[in-house]
From TrEMBL:
Source species of the chain: Ixodes ricinus
Compartments reported by the entry: Mitochondrion
Similarity annotation: Belongs to the mitochondrion-specific ribosomal protein mL40 family.
Membrane-crossing segments per the record: none
Protein name per Swiss-Prot or TrEMBL: Large ribosomal subunit protein mL40
The keyword Chaperone is annotated on this UniProt entry: no
GO cellular component terms attached to this protein's record: mitochondrial large ribosomal subunit
Keyword S-adenosyl-L-methionine: no
Keywords for the protein's UniProt record, in alphabetical order: Mitochondrion, Ribonucleoprotein, Ribosomal protein, Transit peptide
Length: 201
């Protein structure tokens, strides 16, 4: 059997055919033997084929779960989170019948009198606001006129007059810069229990 033909049967060996004539006649082809890297690969796993009924059942189950979530969102869409400060205590809700008051029915003359009083009060407030606004306008106009005349007479006095008076409002505040230590104060270890109420729609 030819040695060159035997060598070419191995998958990991590569032989150059043009070098066979250069090899000695006793061991032809030995000089042209080259080792190539083996590529070890795992055979592909066969993909399991599931029953179409099982796939359809899974799809329907997922669809029902999504529809249930949508119904829950629609059910609680208009329900807001309650505010404890604005909620009525259950005890007061039970006593709502005892606390209910019936308002007296007013006659026509009383209603007319209240409307007249409300109208008179509105007119009085309007006139008071107009008087205050006109008074402020007169004071501002007189002040501006005096400043203009002062500027014409003496620019130095005008500059001194328009300066901000720091002592107009003598207000002083001494804030606390340090907190005194508390006697027999036990420092917490950092753990605490959250008592915040959880709300679920």
């Amino acid at each position: 059997m030819n040695v060159l033909g035997l060598i070419t049967q191995f998958s990991g060996l590569r032989v150059a055919h043009q070098c066979s004539r250069l090899a000695p006649p006793i061991f032809p082809g030995l000089r042209c033997i080259h080792m190539s890297a083996r590529l070890n690969a795992e055979p592909l796993k066969k993909k399991k084929r599931l029953d179409p009924a099982i796939l359809r059942m899974r799809e329907e189950r997922r669809k029902r779960r999504i529809e249930k979530g949508i119904r829950q969102l629609k059910k609680h869409a208009k329900k807001h989170k309650p505010i404890e400060e604005m909620e009525v205590a259950p005890k007061l809700q039970k006593e709502i019948g005892l606390r209910h008051r019936t308002l007296p029915v007013l006659d026509h003359e009383t209603c007319q009198l209240r409307e007249a009083m409300q109208r008179a009060w509105t007119v009085y407030c309007k006139r008071m606001h107009e008087n205050e606004a006109s008074m402020v306008e007169r004071v501002v106009a007189a002040q501006q006129k005096a400043l203009d005349m002062l500027q014409e007479e003496s620019p130095e006095l005008y500059q001194a007059a328009v300066q901000v008076d720091e002592g107009l409002l003598p207000f002083k505040l001494k804030a606390v810069v340090s907190t005194p230590p508390i006697k027999n104060y036990e420092v917490p270890d950092g753990k605490y229990v959250d008592t915040t109420k959880k709300w679920r729609p």
